[in-house]
Specification:
Layout: H1 10-24, H2 26-45, H3 50-79, H4 87-94, H5 97-119
Helix pairs in contact: 1-3, 2-3, 3-5
Protein backbone atom coordinates (compact mmCIF):
# COMPACT_ATOMS: atom_id res chain seq x y z
CA UNK A 1 0.00 0.00 0.00
CA UNK A 2 1.57 3.24 -1.10
CA UNK A 3 0.85 6.52 0.57
CA UNK A 4 1.32 9.76 -1.25
CA UNK A 5 3.06 12.43 0.72
CA UNK A 6 3.90 15.71 -0.97
CA UNK A 7 7.58 16.47 -0.86
CA UNK A 8 7.19 20.14 0.05
CA UNK A 9 4.28 22.48 0.50
CA UNK A 10 3.30 24.98 -2.14
CA UNK A 11 3.90 27.78 0.36
CA UNK A 12 7.49 26.58 0.85
CA UNK A 13 8.06 26.60 -2.92
CA UNK A 14 6.70 30.14 -3.21
CA UNK A 15 8.78 31.40 -0.29
CA UNK A 16 11.90 29.70 -1.68
CA UNK A 17 11.39 31.33 -5.07
CA UNK A 18 10.82 34.75 -3.47
CA UNK A 19 13.93 34.41 -1.28
CA UNK A 20 15.97 33.34 -4.29
CA UNK A 21 14.84 36.45 -6.20
CA UNK A 22 15.66 38.76 -3.27
CA UNK A 23 19.01 37.05 -2.68
CA UNK A 24 20.11 37.65 -6.26
CA UNK A 25 20.10 41.40 -5.57
CA UNK A 26 22.63 41.10 -2.74
CA UNK A 27 25.72 42.27 -4.69
CA UNK A 28 23.98 45.48 -5.76
CA UNK A 29 22.79 46.10 -2.20
CA UNK A 30 26.31 45.54 -0.85
CA UNK A 31 27.62 48.09 -3.36
CA UNK A 32 24.94 50.51 -2.21
CA UNK A 33 26.01 49.95 1.42
CA UNK A 34 29.67 50.54 0.52
CA UNK A 35 28.72 53.79 -1.21
CA UNK A 36 26.67 54.89 1.81
CA UNK A 37 29.60 54.08 4.10
CA UNK A 38 31.93 56.06 1.85
CA UNK A 39 29.56 59.04 2.05
CA UNK A 40 29.38 58.71 5.84
CA UNK A 41 33.19 58.58 6.17
CA UNK A 42 33.47 61.62 3.89
CA UNK A 43 30.97 63.52 6.03
CA UNK A 44 32.88 62.56 9.18
CA UNK A 45 36.18 63.65 7.65
CA UNK A 46 34.88 67.06 6.67
CA UNK A 47 33.30 67.58 10.11
CA UNK A 48 29.94 68.70 8.77
CA UNK A 49 27.13 69.70 11.07
CA UNK A 50 25.48 67.04 13.26
CA UNK A 51 22.25 66.85 11.26
CA UNK A 52 24.16 65.97 8.06
CA UNK A 53 26.20 63.38 9.95
CA UNK A 54 23.00 61.90 11.33
CA UNK A 55 21.40 61.77 7.87
CA UNK A 56 24.48 60.03 6.44
CA UNK A 57 24.51 57.58 9.36
CA UNK A 58 20.84 56.76 8.91
CA UNK A 59 21.32 56.27 5.16
CA UNK A 60 24.15 53.81 5.88
CA UNK A 61 21.96 52.02 8.43
CA UNK A 62 19.14 51.65 5.87
CA UNK A 63 21.59 50.32 3.26
CA UNK A 64 23.01 47.80 5.75
CA UNK A 65 19.51 46.69 6.74
CA UNK A 66 18.53 46.09 3.10
CA UNK A 67 21.74 44.12 2.50
CA UNK A 68 21.16 42.09 5.67
CA UNK A 69 17.61 41.20 4.62
CA UNK A 70 18.85 40.10 1.19
CA UNK A 71 21.62 38.00 2.78
CA UNK A 72 19.11 36.34 5.10
CA UNK A 73 16.89 35.56 2.10
CA UNK A 74 19.86 34.15 0.19
CA UNK A 75 20.74 32.01 3.21
CA UNK A 76 17.21 30.61 3.42
CA UNK A 77 17.24 29.89 -0.32
CA UNK A 78 20.66 28.21 -0.07
CA UNK A 79 19.41 25.85 2.65
CA UNK A 80 16.90 24.40 0.19
CA UNK A 81 13.17 24.30 -0.31
CA UNK A 82 12.65 21.53 2.27
CA UNK A 83 14.19 23.69 5.00
CA UNK A 84 11.14 25.97 5.00
CA UNK A 85 8.91 23.21 6.38
CA UNK A 86 11.32 21.04 8.34
CA UNK A 87 13.51 22.17 11.22
CA UNK A 88 15.81 19.15 10.82
CA UNK A 89 16.42 19.98 7.15
CA UNK A 90 17.17 23.55 8.18
CA UNK A 91 19.78 22.40 10.71
CA UNK A 92 21.32 20.02 8.18
CA UNK A 93 21.44 22.80 5.61
CA UNK A 94 23.29 25.12 7.99
CA UNK A 95 25.85 22.37 8.60
CA UNK A 96 26.87 22.25 4.91
CA UNK A 97 29.75 24.42 3.69
CA UNK A 98 27.39 26.60 1.66
CA UNK A 99 25.04 27.01 4.63
CA UNK A 100 27.94 27.86 6.93
CA UNK A 101 29.21 30.45 4.45
CA UNK A 102 25.82 32.17 4.31
CA UNK A 103 25.46 31.99 8.09
CA UNK A 104 28.85 33.68 8.49
CA UNK A 105 27.90 36.38 5.97
CA UNK A 106 24.61 37.09 7.73
CA UNK A 107 26.37 37.24 11.10
CA UNK A 108 29.03 39.58 9.70
CA UNK A 109 26.43 41.96 8.27
CA UNK A 110 24.33 41.85 11.45
CA UNK A 111 27.38 42.62 13.61
CA UNK A 112 28.38 45.47 11.31
CA UNK A 113 24.89 46.95 11.46
CA UNK A 114 24.58 46.65 15.23
CA UNK A 115 28.02 48.18 15.78
CA UNK A 116 27.06 51.05 13.51
CA UNK A 117 23.78 51.54 15.36
CA UNK A 118 25.61 51.72 18.68
CA UNK A 119 28.46 54.02 17.67
CA UNK A 120 28.02 55.38 14.15
CA UNK A 121 24.79 57.35 14.13
CA UNK A 122 25.36 60.90 15.31
CA UNK A 123 23.02 62.26 17.91
CA UNK A 124 21.58 65.69 17.24
CA UNK A 125 21.39 67.76 20.42
CA UNK A 126 17.96 69.17 21.04
CA UNK A 127 17.72 72.61 22.61
CA UNK A 128 16.41 72.48 26.13
CA UNK A 129 13.89 75.05 27.29
CA UNK A 130 15.32 77.78 29.47
CA UNK A 131 14.50 77.44 33.13
CA UNK A 132 12.57 80.39 34.24
Amino acid sequence: MAFFRPRVSREAEVRHHADHEVGEGLPALLDKAREAERALRQAQATATNPSELRAAGLAYDRALTEALRAAEAAKRAALGVKAYDDRIRRRKGVATPRGAMWTAEVDRLRTLREEHRLTGIARVPHPTPAAG
